[in-house]
Design brief:
Layout lengths: L1 E2 L2 E6 L9 H11 L1 H12 L13 E5 L1 H17 L8 E5 L6 E4 L2 E5 H6 L3 H16 L2 H32 L3 H43 L5 H17 L13 H13 L10 H28 L4 H15 L2 H14 L4 H13 L3 H14 L5 H14 L2 H17 L4 H13 L3 H14 L3 H12 L7 H11 L8
Helix pairs in contact: 1-2, 1-7, 2-6, 3-5, 5-7, 5-8, 6-7, 7-9, 8-9, 10-11, 11-12, 12-13, 13-14, 13-15, 14-15, 15-16, 15-17, 16-17, 17-18, 18-19, 19-20
Length: about 475
Amino acid sequence: MMFSTLTFHRRHAGLPVVAAMDALVFYMLKLGRAAAVAVLAVIVASTAPVAAFAQGRVPIVRDAEIEALVREYARPILKAAGLTKSGIDIILVNDPSFNAFVAGRRMFFNTGALLQSETPNEIIGVIAHEAGHIAGGHQERLRDQMARAQTMAVIASLLGVGAMAAGAATDQSGLAGAGAGIMMGGSETARRTLLGYQRAEEAAADQSGAHYLEVTGQSGKGMLTTFARFQSALSLSGAQVDPYRVSHPMPRERIANLETLVKASPYYDKTDSAEMQQRYDMVRAKIAVYTKGQAEGSRLFKKLSPLAAQYGDALLAYRFSNPRNALKKADALIKQQPNNPYFHELRGDVLLKANQPEKAVAAYAKAVQLDPGKSSIIQIAYGQALIATGKTENVKKAATLIKDALSRDKENFTGYTYLAQAYGQLGDVGEAEMATAEGYYYSGNYNQAKIFAMRAQQKFKRGEPAWVRAQDIISQKGPKKKG
């Protein structure tokens, strides 16, 4: 699905979803050894394409504006954590719940976390916490702990089975019952041990996050606000939670552990600048429009800065009104901030939707020129508009632009669709099929990727780069199907 530049990618693969790692650990111990093996496979695969993190339909959000802002927030934190050269990727997930997690060298943030956090400082606190996990090597150690817990559970199961068998053979029901107790107790002990380890790691990440915030001259108040929100939600739910059966410290405990440290910082009372807040409000307005719809979006706008509310209104017009009205609102935004690349990008989106590709080309070209981050997403949209003009020179230019964008953002599989379209219009069937194969590969559909790679390979000379890349895809071993 495409809205403005915000794209929902639904990626497919055969591995379990890496969402909240703690939830997977719980189910690993609840369901047994098979689940443990699957979870461990996911962690081992954490350097694979993003497609390998999803099963079924998990929407990955791509948006130039949101990605740029979150990366800007993360940059000083990653530097403080010594992770500047670690190649950390930030990935957005279309999920309304407040959640963030790490997998390999990737930080995943739910859109719900961005929407529910009311200030930049709150989401920066989340980034600092997740950076603490990566810098502390928690994921690698979690893998070791999971292996140990798995061993504990398996040994307990074997002992339990042995006792049950002995009880049955000697007609001793007490021994058989004891065997069942050993099995259940062993799994419970393993689970509690692992969850206790996770709680310790979460507390360590909180402490590290608070340190990174102070080093970068930022307040830790946002972290306390986030935990207070969790505490309020828990209280309102009325749920009785066993603190030893969860993977995170209880919100009240986390607040108590952090409060003294955070309040001692000389930056505790430092607030976000008006410019930071405005940009964050605009991102929240965008997310609300595309995930909550007209009514809820309009309600949120009343709480945001005037320009953010105006931006949200323009996005609503783009989605739900006629192009003329949306264009008028986009132009009003550009008049206020002529150097804002995302306003020009919105103008291009409106014009492309209105079937005016020539004018859209000019708008996207301006957005690309103004974009400080040189986002591949805007560049691909520019190429899409060039293709839509149908002019050969423009289509050639589009192929060059999109190929360049994909060289910097290989996993943007939507880009391969437009690249294939460009090559198709130019009559280069081999490159079109190769681009299609790449798109399927990065979307996790390995079977289709292999089909198109084999078709493309026949049109290249053996040994040349495109032939070799096609062979790589053909040789790719996708996830095993469940039998």
